[in-house]
Every structure is written in structure tokens, then in C-alpha cells.
Amino acid sequence: MTNSPESNPTVSAAEAAELIRSLLHKEGTWVDWGKKCQQLQKAGYGAEEIFEQSGFQKVQQNLVIVASQVYESLVKQCIDERVLAYYRGLKSDVLYELRILNHQQRAIAAVEAQQKNLAADEAKELAKAFQEFGYLSQLPEGFTDHPGDALAYQCWKLARQKKNLPERTRLIVKGLKFAHSPNARQAIEKLLTDLTAQPSRKAPLVPVFRLEEDQEAARLIPVAGTFPLEPQAVQTVQSLEQVEPFGLVNYQGEGAVVPVPQWQAILTAEDPVAIFCPAGQVSESLARKDEQVLVVVDRSKKIWNDGSYFLLNQGETVAIQWCETEPEREILAQVVLVLRPKKIFDANNLREPWQMDD
Which own/partner pairs from 51-55 qualify as long-range (CB within 8 Å, at least 24 positions apart)? Predict the structure, then answer.
């Protein structure tokens, strides 16, 4: 072999050449091949270079290396020599599928695969079922912590969900093949004697929704009352604090609260209070002055500006006004929003199903 790496002191060029020669003539078992391929790769020889010199393709190198590692883990678990001899035959692909298991699980699964003379695809299914079985918080009733019972449980669970009779029967037969414990076999045989039973239903979809916009969730605002109001009625209303992300409110005060969509004006209000009054008492410019509206005021904003309406202390009552200059009266709060009720021509129609004339 040429161009051998000089960075590895453990394998000389002569030793590497001997390893390549041995692989080329396929001396020993596949376990030996895996060890030699791994030795060369650790020495710095690439998989492509090993392939060119020995004929072992990259995929084959990986398979025998991993399978030989699984084999060595079986040796450390003191597996019976007859089982080891079985796998030293052309069974590297079977051991390769057991790589996902820990050492103890490999030993048990290897014996099961040997006793049932499993092919690689069956060993893969057995190993996956055994691995997933170990993730369960507790063993299913009637099944033991054995790879055969693990795969039998998978078959039992799937068979109960199948409506197609041939598929259901195939799973039952397969489960009986792998069932290890008497109780597991009985559980599967019960399906065999009750092929007319209704398959277990899947749980319905959970009605999950997600709030996408702030306006979809209302903000609860404490209500001070309806005009006419005393100043004290506005000042003594208990503030509400909402806890995100769902706007939870713990309200221990007396009185009512009202939900208002979380428009920008509502979101920025620090200490909002709601008041009901006729539209005409907010501004003469509003149409339908007798219509009752909901006025939201922010008690944290008490500094006058000529671009806002304010709730003023009039002595015995309060009033909403716009002031061209700074008022002499005490400012109780700034108006942040006036909400009109939605128009509904006939509320009863909304509660009835739609009807269309033929």
C-alpha cells in the first residue's frame, strides 16, 4: 500500500499493507474484517483508499465496523458461545441493526434474534420496538420487559386500531410469533378470538386556538358608573392588573367590569376606568346625542393639553370637556376612547339559523 499516513505511530506501512492483504483475501470472519477496517481508519486511511486497495466498499466498511463493535459488546456480556458462533456467520447485518440498544439490551435482543433466526429487517423492527418500550413510564399490563413482548405489544396495539381484517389478522399472527410471556400471548389471542370487535377509536382533535393579534383579546376595565357621577366614584374605583399571556384578572373590588378590544389607545392606558353617559355629554358634535356611549378615561394622565378631552371635577359631579386653555377645575382623567354600541337591527335574528327562501 502506498501513501500511508505518517502521523500514526501505531500502524507501520508494513502492518497496514498486511491488513489490506488480509482484507483483500477476506481472511477470518466479518468480525475480523470490521476490526481491521477500523484499525486502518483510525490510522488515518480513508474509506475510499481502503476500498481501492481491498475491494471493501464504504457502506460495507461501515457495516462490519459497527457490527463488530456490537459483537464485542456481546462478548463482554458473556453471551453463550453458540450465540456468538451463530453471529460470526453471515449475520453482520443483523447485529448492525442492534446498534441503537444499550449493551444489556443488545445481549437480550441478540439471543431473541438468534432463537427466531431473524433477518436484518426483522431485527431492525425488534430493536426499535425494544428501544421505544424502554421509554414507557410503566410496562403495559400483561407485557414484560423483553424484546419479544415489546414487539408483540406494538402488534397488539396496532391490531386493535385496524379495521381491515387481513391487516388485523397479520398483526395478530406476528404478535403471537414474538410474544415471550404467557400473559402477552393471552392478550393477543384475545384479539384473535374477537376479530369482530370494534377497533379502538383515536382521540378527537384538541380544539386548539392561538391569539394572533392583541385585538382578539379584550381588556377588562373597571366601571365607575353612569352619569351623573360624583368625583369620588371615579377616584375610588379599584384598578385592574392583567397577567399575561391570557390577560388573567384577579378582581376583589365591588362593581362591574367591561371588556374592550385592545386597540392602541386601550393598550397604552395605564389606569383606565369606564364611564357610561349620553353621547351629548361628551361633545355636542356627536350625532345621536341621546345614544349611550362607553367612555374610557385614563386616571394616570392629569396634565392638560389642548388636543384631548378631560374628565373634570365639578364639585358634586364630574363632566367631560375640551378646554381651549388650562382649566381651573381639577383634572381627574384624560379621555382615551369613546365607544359606541354596535348596530344590531334584530338581536333575535342572530340567535336563529339562517333561512333562505326557495
Answer: 53/1, 53/20, 53/23, 53/24, 54/20, 54/23, 54/24, 55/23, 55/24
Which helix (H) or strand (E) segment is 31 a member of? helix 30-42
Architecture per CATH, domain 13-131, reads as Orthogonal Bundle (1.10)
- Does this model's pTM top 0.70? My answer is no
Residue spans of the domains in the chain: they are 13-131, 136-192, 214-339
- Return the bridge partners of 258, or none: 221
Query: Which grid coordinates are listed for 123?
Result: 431485527
CA distance 358 to 344: 26
C-alpha–C-alpha distance, residues 100 and 126, integer Å = 11
The more confidently predicted of residues 248 and 234 is 234
DSSP track, 151-184: HHHHHHHHHHH---HHHHHHHHHHHHHH--SHHH
Q: Closest Cα to residue 151, out of 172, 169, 132, 126?
A: 126
The CATH number for 214-339, chosen from 2.60.40, 2.10.109, 3.30.1330, 1.20.1320, is 2.10.109
Angle 277-278-282 (CA atoms, 0-180°, nearest 5)?
85
pLDDT reported for residue 162:
84
